[in-house]
Amino acid sequence: MNRDKSNDDGAASTEINYRGVRRRPSGKYCAEIRDQAKGGARVWLGTYNTAVEAAWAYDRAAFASRGQLAILNFPENYNLPMTSSHFYTPSSSSSSSHQVFEMECMDDKLMDELLDCDDKKKKKGGK
């Protein structure tokens, strides 16, 4: 989604922000991703001339590391099912009146295991 921002000269410009992409002071775009195997450390993916190129780099890295669970900028390029968990809605870095929450879908077996674990803890604690 596009957001209007003011330039230094006061003119409005439309800029799209993508997941894993930052604009550098030079005007180029850098891409990076967090590696959960390394405690959330940033992994540098490179510097690109356009935000779209940087977003593609992020998508390639996210899909390579997380597969179908990845939240992508362009999920249509990966022939994934059209579910909300695969889509990332670009937004402005400026504050807005709404918040975006990312939710991960868990299968029933995992949810049952988590609930059973909680029940066992309550029984051991005498509650």
Structure, explained:
The protein is of the alpha+beta class and 127 residues long. It has a single domain (3-125), classed as 2-Layer Sandwich (GCC-box Binding Domain), CATH 3.30.730. The chain contains two helices and five strands. The strands form two sheets. It has a three-stranded antiparallel β-sheet with strand order 3-4-5, covered by helices on one side. Strands 1-2 form a two-stranded antiparallel sheet. The chain starts with a strand and ends with a helix.
Summed up, what is this model?
This protein has helices at residues 51-66, 108-125; strands spanning 3-6, 12-15, 21-23, 29-35, 41-48. The protein has 127 residues and is of the alpha+beta class.
What key attributes describe this structure?
two-stranded antiparallel ribbon; disordered N terminus; GCC-box Binding Domain; 27% helix; alpha+beta; 3-stranded antiparallel β-sheet; 127 residues; plant defense
- Range of strand content: 15-25%
What's the structural domain tally?
1
CATH fold annotation: GCC-box Binding Domain
Q: Helical segment tally?
A: 2
- Average per-residue pLDDT, rounded, comes to 75
Architecture in CATH?
2-Layer Sandwich
Unreliable stretches, pLDDT < 50, 5 or more residues? 1-6
What does the largest sheet look like? 3 strands, antiparallel
The level of helicity is 25-40%
InterPro entries: AP2/ERF_dom, AP2/ERF_dom_sf, DNA-bd_dom_sf, ERF_plant
Main location: nucleus
GO cellular component, one term: nucleus
Protein name: AP2/ERF domain-containing protein
